[in-house]
Write a structure and sequence with these properties.
The protein is of the alpha/beta class. The chain has eleven helices and nine strands.
Length: 286
């Protein structure tokens, strides 16, 4: 595995690889890697690609500076996990390397509806920051395949829109991989390590709520199960931010179940000072 910290060194290496006919799969991350990230790398590797992973805690996607400061950094552990996963190339730039002319120089992307609901509403500016760094990384890596995890479903939709707006949708195939979970259903997340032991014992409640929504999609009333989930989360000590239902293809929010369509149930809730998000795809019922 090769590690790069400078853009020009990475580009030179990847140009040499490309000239030999190798296609590239790219996995962008912010580090604090876990089994979920590992699954993305293993999928790209099994697809026969040169696997490039970036590790960069992107300041422009944090609307809360304290959240940015608290984001876990575990570089040595991350590198060991990447080697174990079969990653070929790691890019670990500094903030100055990625933003040499400041955070907002010459960049504009508008995600419209996707930036105004759910995570967009709760974290103003977050997705513009995500779009900003992913756009820069794609220009550097120039992959043919981009691997993302379903846990950040809205972010996947935003990046799909980014590919469309930048004219890359025919050049880069977006591969969304299933969420990797703990035994109790809790989605693997870098934030999980910040949970206290009592909080961790309760964190699986979010997945229980998602499964409850899934079981009610045939003949149920979403408003009822939504209220039940909010109340259960509050009872367990969470501060629920939203329990939502949306069309899985475009994230248009739904008032009630549409069992004939693929939907997605989405939840965000805080427990203590840790904010957790999760979702579950609801397949159409025959």
């Amino acid at each position: 595995m090769v590690i790069f910290k400078l853009k020009q060194d990475l580009q030179r290496y990847l140009q040499n690889q490309s000239s030999s006919g190798r296609m590239t799969g790219f996995v962008p991350t912010m580090g604090a890697l876990h089994r979920g990230h590992q699954s993305l790398i293993e999928k790209a590797k099994s697809d026969g690609l040169l696997v490039v992973c970036s590790i960069f805690v992107n300041p422009t996607q944090f609307n809360d500076p304290s959240d940015y400061e608290a984001y876990p950094v575990s570089s040595e552990k991350d590198i060991a996990l990447l080697i174990e996963s079969g990653c070929d190339v790691v890019f670990m730039p500094t903030v100055e390397e990625m933003y040499p002319n400041g955070f907002h120089n010459g960049f504009s992307l508008e995600f419209g509806y996707l930036d105004s609901i759910l995570e967009g509403a709760k974290r103003p500016g977050h997705f513009k920051g995500v779009g900003q760094i992913v756009s820069r990384l794609l220009e550097l890596v120039k992959p043919q395949f981009l691997y993302l995890g379903q846990k950040d479903y809205q972010q996947c939709m935003v990046i799909r829109e980014l590919l469309k707006q930048s004219g890359k949708q025919d050049k880069i195939q977006l591969v969304i991989c299933p969420t990797v979970r703990e035994a109790d259903g809790l989605a693997k997340s870098s934030r999980n390590i910040r949970l206290t032991e009592p909080q961790r014992a309760l964190a699986g409640t979010i997945y229980q709520c998602l499964v409850s929504i899934q079981t009610k999609q045939r003949g149920g009333d979403f408003k009822i199960v939504q209220k039940e989930c909010m109340e259960l989360l509050e009872k367990k000590g969470f501060e629920p931010e939203y329990v939502a239902l949306a069309d899985a293809s475009n994230l248009n929010l739904l008032e009630n179940f549409q069992p004939e369509n693929q939907m997605v149930a989405l939840i965000a809730a805080k427990i203590g000072d840790v904010r957790l998000i999760d979702n579950l795809i609801l397949q159409p019922l025959n």
